[in-house]
Amino acid sequence: MLTLYKRHTKECAEVRKRDGAAESVAELRADRSYRRCACPIHAEGTLRIDGFIRKTTGELKWEKAEKLKREWEDAGTLAVAVPGSPAPQEPPTVEHVIEQFTKDRTPCKLSPSTLKKYRQFANRLREFCTEKGVVYITQFGIDHARAFRESWTDASITNLKRLERMKAFFAWVVAQRWIEINPAQKLKAPETEDPPADPISDGDLADLIGAIERMPTREGEKNMTHARLLAMILLLRHTGLRIGDTVRFSTDRLKGNAAFLHQAKTGNPVWLPLPEFLVAKLKALPLYEGKYYFASGSTKLGTATGNARRSLRKLSKLAKVRTVNPHRFRDTLAINLLQRGVPIEDVKDILGHEDVNITLRHYGNWVKERQDRLTRSLEKTWDIA
User: Fold this and answer.
1) Best CA proximity match to 243, nearest among 326, 315, 185
2) Contact 301, 112 (CB under 8 A)
3) How far is residue 228's CA from residue 295's CA, in Å, rounded to a whole number?
4) HSE on the CB side for 194, CA within 13 Å?
5) How would you class 188 by CB atoms within 10 Å of its CB: exposed for 0-12, middle for 13-18, buried for 19 or more?
6) Which residues, 6+ apart, have CB-to-CB distance to 216 below 8 Å?
7) Is residue 171 pLDDT above 70, yes or no?
8) Is the pLDDT of residue 61 over 90?
9) What does pLDDT average to over the chain?
């Protein structure tokens, strides 16, 4: 739909001011409701093909401007010639929009993994539009958005994240005024279930550590590689760090016997004390580039985390325990702390959750105080029986 309005000249506003108008000249120029003048008539709004437009009609009389407005709306484009105006431009193609969006993401200081996921999403969208014959971004409607989502066959959590990126992409397109509405905005998110906490038992952890010496390594690196793997496992177990932070752990984050975990939401740094034997093992490691314990700073984060995950899978197989992934160490630390009576608010700060409800959702069943309260409540019912 288009809206017609007068775009008043400075001379028009000054005349009205002299005639007694109370508003300022700037306010009079911006007054779209005033029509009794010879100022040019403009149109603003969204067309089906062109998307958002703001353009002069080339008319001074309202009746002629209304007629041209209806022609534009019926055609969905400015292809209807305006006297004395250049030919309208085509709407941007899907390929052009994807290219511009990708360029816009790069300087936003997003992590390499996030940028990679946006590129993967863009490739999927490009393939879908090619298959459906969608050339211009203005052709991509709600039905296309729904069909695009239905083409995803991955796990619910993966599709949820992909939908979030889809909404972010089209919100950016709307902000460029290439389309009027976000076709993905009203799509319902898939239902997801958080996987249950999966701590590592003391026995499995002992077997895992015991199998390190049997890990195959390159000649001449046996002691160093085994020492790094042991130190990494112990650091994961005693800090609950994510694997990305672990492989990038450096001397900057170790002060005495305390490890810097992250910056809390309040802006305060969160430090966690480490056992002396772990600090000793870290300090005994040869450093990469004089500061990194587990991988060179020049190694891509995805490569470093992938190497660490593969090492843990191989080690699990050697130890004959159920596959240990890095997140199970976070579960182990969180549950161990809660069962020892550590307040869940403190566990939240250690894990780096933004909200305590996230911690409760994952680990609420392990809160010792809650378990004790439930036990006392049940014991009271025995007296009644």
Assistant:
1) 326
2) yes
3) 10
4) 11
5) exposed
6) none
7) yes
8) no
9) 86
Calculate mean pLDDT across residues 258-274: 86
Other C-beta atoms lying within 10 Å of the C-beta of residue 251: 13
Give the contacts of 199 (CB within 8 A, at least 6 positions apart): 328, 331, 332, 335, 336
Which residues, in sequence order, are CB contacts of 45 under 8 Å at separation 6+? 1, 2, 3, 52, 53
**What length is written for the chain?**
385
Long-range contacts of 299-308 (CB under 8 A, 24+ apart): 300/112, 301/111, 301/112, 301/113, 301/244, 301/247, 301/248, 302/112, 302/113, 302/116, 304/247, 304/248, 305/243, 305/244, 305/247, 307/247, 308/232, 308/243, 308/246, 308/247
| pTM for the full predicted model | 0.61
Neighbours of 287 (CB within 10 A): 14
Structural tokens at position 23: 């508003």
Q: What is the mean pLDDT of residues 209-220?
A: 80
Structural contact between residues 172 and 44, judged by C-beta atoms closer than 8 angstroms: no
Tokens of 230: 């042991």
Q: How far apart are CA 146 and CA 132, in angstroms?
A: 13
- Would you say 53 and 91 are in contact if contact means Cβ atoms under 8 Å apart? no
Secondary structure, 3-state, the chain: CEEEEECCCHHHHHHHHHCCCCCCHHHHHCCCCCCCCCCCEEEEEEECCCEEEEEECCCCCHHHHHHHHHHHHHHCCCCCCCCCCCCCCCCCEHHHHHHHHHHHHHHHCCCHHHHHHHHHHHHHHHHHHHHHCCCEHHHCCHHHHHHHHHCCCCCHHHHHHHHHHHHHHHHHHHHCCCCCCCCCCCCCCCCCCCCCCCCCCHHHHHHHHHCHHHCCCCCCCHHHHHHHHHHHHHHHHHHCCCHHHHHCCEHHHEECCEEEEEECCCCCEEEEECCHHHHHHHHCCCCECCCECCCCCCCCHHHHHHHHHHHHHHHHHHHCCCCCCHHHHHHHHHHHHHHCCCCHHHHHHHHCCCCHHHHHHHHHHHCHHHHHHHHHHHHHHHHHC
Q: How confident is the model at residue 241 (pLDDT cuts 50, 70, 90)?
A: very high
- Mean pLDDT is lowest, of 44-58, 110-124, 135-149, 246-260, for 44-58
